[in-house]
Backbone:
């Protein structure tokens, strides 16, 4: 038995499996040629960032578009960041947006799939098995340096002006300890970590092809990275390499902040004897800082929209948020949407190579515009169902009013909706209450703000005359014909163009007359089709509102 093998046995006396055993436990996936396997791997912080939803969507679309698989893995090896049941909020966020993984973690303590466990803290034996193998091959070793010694090392490098800072080369004081010294220190109970024995050369460079960014060249890794911490738990870098290999990930898709780590990951893959996956580094989700005007990352502390829970609380439809994210993900999505206005987004021909390599600007104004378009093509029944569900949790008082008569509320939502050019007034469910309140007596408060250019006497004359001709059975054409007939006797013109040509000749035009009626009935200057509104309110209510308006003049 070689010294390396003796050392491995000394370090890992309870590890009996070999890497080959795990190759059999996790065989190559039975997928079509060209199928891509991707993973989304957050830490269990109890918080799903909008950038995380963005990344997960890219993972899933990449897998779906190639007949592959996407899985959710929880990377909980950094226990400083972990919170109790930090998984549920992440899974709940994905569930709200119907972002579904093929396998992986499904909740707190639950999962599905054949390549688990999908939580890293449950895979410690795997990492230790592979680390033991690296020690046997002389590619890893125990490091006994204390925190104070590592601090002194960094200070020495800074004072010497070292270009590369870290544990490597002449600074790696535990790298070349004899077996006898290693054995003595281990048996003496000294604390240690397991480090990679880097084979990198600071004078050499590596190159890899990023699926999004093209060819990238960087210096080789020379740092003896920590593989296992003193408690036997792996670092992110080592765990991800082991997991992505054994879970048979073909494409590692992650944020651009990980580009600098690629050299160490490539060396780890090669040290373990693993085939390199493809790397794709997505752009960061940015916003314009209101104070400085500069671009910056979305901040959990500064920006409420950084958390996906913000969009849930505000009542944005999941379809709107996903649609908006797709405009950031692929540059050709908006052209596709214009050509396919009512097609499901799952039909969009996603292409990872069409992602931008520069940061994506998250714009709430544009999200609102996208959401208005999305909601406008929903049926009234769909909108009713969504509003009822959202208000049940967010606004119980309005929910009670809104759901008391589902047929009526659905009809309210259907005004100017299921037609060739539907209105685009609603961007989120939290806006519906104000949008429809005048149609519910429990919510309506009369507030008459008539056009100031009209005299009170003329306003009263319009309303009085309209009461004489009002018929709730009138259709839209008959209703408007009566409004036009009222105009000339009251000093208004039924022709808007004529008024614009000689405004001094008239008190106003047909739009002003209908506007007076609209304000009297709804207390608003802008509403959907007024005829349809009055048909829903009914004769008694419309008559009462008109008389109320007259009495206030």
Residues:
């Amino acid at each position: 038995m070689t010294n390396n093998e003796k050392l491995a046995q000394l370090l890992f006396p309870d590890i009996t499996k070999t890497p080959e055993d795990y190759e059999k436990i996790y065989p190559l996936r039975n997928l079509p040629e060209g199928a891509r396997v991707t993973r989304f791997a957050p830490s269990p912080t109890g918080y799903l960032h909008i950038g995380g939803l963005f990344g997960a969507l890219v993972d899933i679309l990449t897998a779906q578009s190639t007949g592959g698989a996407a899985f959710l893995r929880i990377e909980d090896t950094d226990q400083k960041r972990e919170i109790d049941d930090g998984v549920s909020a992440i899974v709940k966020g994905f569930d709200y947006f119907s972002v579904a993984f093929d396998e992986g973690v499904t909740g707190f303590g639950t999962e599905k799939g054949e390549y688990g466990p999908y939580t890293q803290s449950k895979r410690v034996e795997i990492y230790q098995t592979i680390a033991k193998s690296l020690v046997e091959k002389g590619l890893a070793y125990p490091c006994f340096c204390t925190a104070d010694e590592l601090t002194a090392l960094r200070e020495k490098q800074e004072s010497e002006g070292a270009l590369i800072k870290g544990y490597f080369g002449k600074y790696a004081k535990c790298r070349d300890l004899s077996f006898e010294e290693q054995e003595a220190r281990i048996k003496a109970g000294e604390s240690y970590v397991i480090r990679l024995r880097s084979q990198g050369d600071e004078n050499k460079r590596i190159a890899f092809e990023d699926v999004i960014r093209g060819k990238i060249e960087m210096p080789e890794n020379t740092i003896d990275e920590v593989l296992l911490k003193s408690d036997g738990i792996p670092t992110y870098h080592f765990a991800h390499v082991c997991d992505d290999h054994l879970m048979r990930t073909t494409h590692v898709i992650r944020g651009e902040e990980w580009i600098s780590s690629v050299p160490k990951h490539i060396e780890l893959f090669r040290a373990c004897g693993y085939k390199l996956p493809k790397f794709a580094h997505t752009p960061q989700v940015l916003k314009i800082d209101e104070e400085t005007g500069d671009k910056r990352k979305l901040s959990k502390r500064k920006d409420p929209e950084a958390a996906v829970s913000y969009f849930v609380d505000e009542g944005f439809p999941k379809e709107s948020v996903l649609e908006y994210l797709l405009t950031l993900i692929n540059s050709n999505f908006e052209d596709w949407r214009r050509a396919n206005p009512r097609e499901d987004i799952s039909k969009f021909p996603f292409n990872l190579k069409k992602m931008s390599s520069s940061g994506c600007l998250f714009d709430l104004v544009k999200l609102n515009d996208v959401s208005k378009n999305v909601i406008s093509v929903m049926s009234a029944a769909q909108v009713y169902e969504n509003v009822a569900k959202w208000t049940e949790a967010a606004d119980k008082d309005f929910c009670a009013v809104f759901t008391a008569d589902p047929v009526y509320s659905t009809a309210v939502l259907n005004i100017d909706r299921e037609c060739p050019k539907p209105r685009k007034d609603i961007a989120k469910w939290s806006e519906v209450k104000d949008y429809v309140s005048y149609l519910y007596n429990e919510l309506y408060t009369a507030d008459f703000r008539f056009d100031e250019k009209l005299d009170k006497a003329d306003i009263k004359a319009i309303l009085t005359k309209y009461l004489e001709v009002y018929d709730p059975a009138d259709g839209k054409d008959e209703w408007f014909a009566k409004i036009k007939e009222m105009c000339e006797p009251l000093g208004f013109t039924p022709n808007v163009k004529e008024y614009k040509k000689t405004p001094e000749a008239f008190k106003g035009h047909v739009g002003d007359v209908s506007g007076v009626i609209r304000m009297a009935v709804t207390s608003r200057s802008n509403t959907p089709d007024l005829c349809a509104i009055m048909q829903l309110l009914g004769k008694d209510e419309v008559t009462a509102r008109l008389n109320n308006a007259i009495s206030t003049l």
Q: What stands out?
A: The chain has a mean pLDDT of 94.
